[in-house]
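User: Hey, my collaborator sent me this sequence without any context and asked if I could get a structure. I don't really work with proteins. Can you help?
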Amino acid sequence: MTNNKPTMSQNSAVKKSVTYLSLIFMGAAGSLLGTQLLPNRPELIPPSVAQLPAPVPSGNINFIANAVERTGAAVVRIDAARAARSTRQPGARVVRGTGSGFIIEPDGLILTNAHVTGGADTVNVTLKDGRKFTGRVLGRDELTDVAVVRIQANNLPAVTLGNSDSLRPGEWAIAIGNPLGLDNTVTAGIISATGRSSSDVGVPDKRVGFIQTDAAINPGNSGGPLLNQQGQVVGMNTAIIGGAQGLGFAIPINRAQQIAEQLVAKGRIDRAYLGVQMATLNDEIRETLAQESNGNVTISASEGVVILGVERNSPAAAAGIRPGDVIQQINGQQVKTADQVQQAVENSQIGVNIPLEVSRNGRNITLSVRAGEFPASAS
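Assistant: No problem. I've predicted the 3D structure and written it out in structure-token form, which is a compact way to encode the shape of the chain:
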């Protein structure tokens, strides 16, 4: 048995090492398990005050077991395989992935993570009772890490969806999945936080406000449900932070369901797009821009969202947005963080003009950007 208490050198290594988002690979044959490994940056999560979970519902000490009994039969194992080609070696090797999913409709509609399907068009789905099906991937959205799979079956056990918008830190959280190939494993903890931005947890390329939980989430849990104390699904487990304990993340079920409905209807997500690289303004960014531009970019604004880059032939370029501009308002609403701008764009419609107020070299100007369609290559 290993000693879980970190040494001083281990703590130092955790603070200093930063890795990019990747999947956890297991074994030399290239098989991978479905939980994402987030950058090793536990310092991004502020120390939390110890919280007691919500009271046991109606004094029922077996509420976790009851919740699992209501939902466990709807949790499935998903095995995906895809061909991976290498420029160094001829031919292709097969990369196999394993993750979890859960049935949301009795006619065989399954929700899982996009990274669990691994780019495959079909996957193998195993139910808790041992039945096996070939599932067709109806669609996947890499930016939210949501995918929908259909199997040909009827009268299947299905989960009950809860309301992730009503979650509060300190409530019970129950995770079910297939970590390390151990099917239908149950872990429990609490909701540690809600609304963790993608930048907070080190995955700025995602478009999710994550649920944070200390319920154990391990490789293979990805795509499995996160339940409340009533056994309702409130999130879809997706990621962990390497080198840290008690830091797991889930996609809010309201967001996952919204994406799933579009994937079922059209097989893709129509997403508004401006074509800018941006960041929340701070002193460090202000100084860096001044140095790299040799003083040609001066930022007088004290807060806002600074434009770091503009893509060629993008809606932002057509509207005249420049690097160094600081967005103060979007759609008439004041913004202070890049996440607020991103959310406002997400809520916009393609082809509709978005009014912006920006600070440029000490003066405020108004621009109008016609939102374009997010290009597939950008995802």
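In plain terms: The chain has two domains: 18-266, 272-378. You can pass these tokens on to your collaborator as they are.
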